[in-house]
Amino acid sequence: MSHHLVEVRQLQHRYPDGSFGINAVSFRIEHGEAVAIIGANGAGKSTLLQHLNGTLVATAGQVRIGDGLLTPATLSQVRRSVGMVFQNPDDQLFMATVGEDVAFGPLNLGLSGEELEARVVAALGQVDARHLRHKAPYHLSGGEKKRAAIATVLAMMPDVLVMDEPTGGLDPFSRRQVMHLLAGFSHTRIVASHDLDMVLELFPRTIILCNGEVAADGPTRDIFRDRELLARCRLEQPLAMQGCPVCRGGC
Ligand SMILES: Nc1ncnc2c1ncn2[C@@H]1O[C@H](COP(=O)(O)OP(=O)(O)OP(=O)(O)O)[C@@H](O)[C@H]1O
Question: What is the pTM (predicted TM-score) of this model?
Answer without folding.
Answer: 0.94
